[in-house]
Specification:
The chain is of the alpha+beta class. It folds into two domains: 116 residues, 2-Layer Sandwich (60s Ribosomal Protein L30, Chain: A), CATH 3.30.1330.10; 178 residues, Phosphoribosyl-aminoimidazole Synthetase, Chain A, domain 2, CATH 3.90.650. It is built from eleven helices and 13 strands.
Length: 337
Amino acid sequence: MNMRERFPLGKVPSKVLSEVLFRYLGQRDESVILGPQLGEDAAVIKLDEGYLVVSTDPITAAEREIGWLAVHISANDVAVTGARPRWFLSSILLSEDIDLLNIKHISKQIGEAAKSLGIAVIGGHTEITPGLQKHIVVGMAMGLTDRYITSSGARPGDKIIQSKGIGFEGISILASAYEAYLQKKLQKSTISEAKKLREKISVVREALALADHDWLTAMHDPTEGGLFLGLHELADASKTGLKIYRDKIIITEPVRRVCEVLKVDVFSLLSSGTLLASVHPRCVDEALGFLSATGEKCAVIGEMLSDSEERVLVDSTGGRKPLPKPVEDAIWKLIEE
């Protein structure tokens, strides 16, 4: 590996994680049941009774909703690992032009998001950081469970279920950041619906609706890199292949319209709010029933394959092509232009 290699914005490539970061993990601890691994959303620690699930994520692409997003993104990772999120900490790094009004705004967002999920904010750190061009919030959520779920449990033949839609997080950010431009192209109602998708980025309810069932083999929360990268992460973790049906993927109209106007690839756009679950093929209807009972749309969009090298996207005519694997989230590409 070239140690002088430069990388695109966003997630560090999986090869760098495997060959560099994962080599330096400190002291081995037998209570760590699930540590850093490709495709996994959280760490799992064995307690005397049950398991502690912990996850952390930074909010770097958004500005107006960073407090709200910080809670939900970390809570989602805990929930898809099978635990109900209970506690939250944050490191809030503020640019030098911050004022008291904005500090209150970020703090209020964190408090409201936590309260909506029944989470207690138990600590953190806040500072004015030199050199920052915009604020960053790093969230950490924790929860307890008696049975944990991983992204690595999917098996060949399992069906892949998607909930809600895709691109919710990315579209809610872009609809606010590019509102003036979008108003020239779209109806105000469409922009308003797109902005309100911030309220749909939690998958806690859907994940917990499935978590206790034996027919559930894996869950994953596709975030940066969108649906397609999330699917690859699920397959990487489970060492399987994928067959995905393009026309089965749920895409809501506000997401579709904003992506068309901004020329953004919806399949590689920040997709917090989407739940991916792999389930035993004989129990698909039961899983869909539990998800539908939460009030959200859901659909079977594909299946896991035995050959880990076979990852295909099938179109409406039956045509097949390799499933694209994004190297950079669509939101970063737009920001860089």
